[in-house]
Structures are given as structure tokens and as C-alpha cells.
Amino acid sequence: MKSLIAGVVLLASFPVTAWAQAFQPSRPVEIIVHNAPGGGSDLLARFISTLLEKEKLLPVRTQVNNRPGGGSALAMAYMAEKRGDPHTIALFTSAWMMTPILSAEAKAGFYDMTPIARLVLESSLVVVKADSPYRTLQDFIEAAKKEPGKLKQSGGSVQTRGNFVRLILQRSTGARWSYISFPGGGERIAALLGGHVEILMAEPQELGEYIRNGQLRAVAQITEKRLARFPDVPTLREAGFNVHSDPTIRGAVAPPRTAKHVVAYWEEVFARMVKTEGWRKYLEDNQFEDGFQRGDELLKSSKEFVARMREMLKDAGLKVYR
Fold it and tell me: Using an 8 Å Cβ cutoff, are 108 and 72 in contact?
């Protein structure tokens, strides 16, 4: 009996990392993203896939699987079908939390998934073509007031921050312009460069190359404080617009009902990944903020985020279903 009790005590004292060793992937891992190639989640997923292999953090390879459509609804539905599958994970963004709030038809949502980790917090930029006549966001707003509905903004799904900010700006200024949704970041940028739209709100990760080579120009930042790489570009508040600037959340989830020891394994993989030099450099190059949290912390902070965003959606005049 004493030996049995001692064994139970020993098992109870094992750290999470020890339990995580009870699982290791035995076949290639599928990384699901909700947008087309070139979007923020796609770029991040492909970098993570490369880094995991380079740092030998997994015993198997990974494969990025793009599931665009429905403002993340199709990707979430796919993950729901993978219930309990330890060889499938997904990179989520704030859109996974917003889509079920804004869509009565959404069948699955962020809270149906099994949280693994929050990875980064990401601010956004408001950009125009380098030769655009709009030197500031105020210039664009004034032009939109003069010709309501004529000017256009490209972006992702209507459940993303770019559209929310547009709606709030329109409501507070009286200006009106259209929103053109594209499935991939490359298409959104191409529409701006081709002169088919006049403005775009997106993340530095997607826009950095085009700003550096002089094709695009940032006129405002959707953030509470200026990013280090853009010290001369005002935030929305500095530009005179009272818009709350919660950063986009990016992280990883497993399918519904994933076993605890599998989740512990994935938590540990990402906890090791975020400590690598390659990851730290990636954050700096793309103006990400380190936002690492394990699953339980992520669940708590996400609920606080959703509460703030629900109020923002109401301010934008949108119908909230959940």
C-alpha cells in the first residue's frame, strides 16, 4: 500500500511537460488558416511551419491548409469536424471570436475549440498608394464626405478590424465609402496598387515590403502608441479620431475535445518556439508584440477582449447575435 501511495504522489507531482511527453505526433501535422495565401494568418503559419522544422521542435513535418471563406467560418467548421484529432491545429485571429457574434449562421466558434496558446498581438496600418493625393487620413475622410460612396477600401472579411474601424469612422465623421472584401492579402494589396481602391487597413507583416520599396505610404496607425518602425505616422487618436485600438490577437487552437495531454504537448512546443532567436527576430521584423499566453490564460484574456469588442461593434451600429 505504501508503494502504491508513493507512486500516486510521484505522478501527481509531475510537471505539465512530463505529461506532454505522453504524446508525440506520428504523422504530418495540418495547420489550418482561415484566409487565402498571402494573408496575415497564412504568412504566420508558413513561418511557424519553417521555424518548427528548423528548430527541430516536432518529430514530423507540418503542412499549411488554407480554408478561406465566411470570415473564418469555414475554417472553424473544418476544425469542428476534426474533433479530438491530435494531428490538426489552427492559427486563429480575433475574427474567430467576432464571426459568431456577427453571424447567426455560424455553426462553430472560437469557444468550441481547445485553446493552446496566444502568440502575438498585432497592430494595423492605414495605407494608400505612394502617389495618392491623400497625405493624411483626414484628407481621405474629407474626400469621402464630398463624394459619398465613391471611394473604396479593400480588406478581408467584414468581420475583421479594418471594416469595424471603417464603420466607426463613418459613424463619427459622416463620411461614406465602400468596403471591398478579398480572401487573400495579396489580392487586397493588388487592388490598392492597381488603383481599384483608394485605401487599405492591414498589418505591418503584410504591408512592410510595399512600404519599404516605396509603393505604399502609411497615413495612420491603428494602435495606442506608435510602432518603432513608423515613428512619423500618427495613431488614430493622434490624427483626431476617437477609435479604440485593440490589437489583433493571433494564436493557436486544437479541435474540440482534444485530450489534455495532447494540449499540454502543443503548449510546450509553442512555449519553446517563442524563446528561439528566430521567433524573436520575426516579431521585431514584423512589428508584432509578444503576447504569449498558455491556454488557460488565453481563455480568460479572450473573454475580456470579446466584451470590449462587443461594445465596439455596437458603437459601429452592427447587430450582435451572441
Answer: no
**Domain ranges across the chain:** 15-122+247-315, 124-222
Q: What is the model's pTM? A: 0.81
pLDDT by residue (tens digit) across 272-300? 999 999 999 999 998 899 999 999 999 99
159 DSSP assignment: T
Give Cβ neighbours of residue 125 (< 8 Å, ≥ 6 apart): 201, 202, 203, 204, 207, 211, 218, 220, 221, 222, 230, 233
Query: Does 124-222 carry CATH code 3.40.50.2000?
Result: no
Percentage of the chain beyond pLDDT 90 is 70
Burial (Cβ within 10 Å: 0-12, 13-18, ≥19) of residue 19: middle
CATH class of 15-122+247-315: alpha beta
E strand intervals along the chain: 29-33, 62-66, 88-93, 114-122, 124-129, 152-155, 178-181, 199-202, 216-222, 248-254, 288-294
| Radius of gyration in angstroms for the set of CA atoms belonging to the chain, rounded to a whole number | 21
Q: Do domains 15-122+247-315 and 124-222 have the same CATH topology?
A: yes
Report yes or no: 294 and 77 within 8 Å, Cβ to Cβ.
no
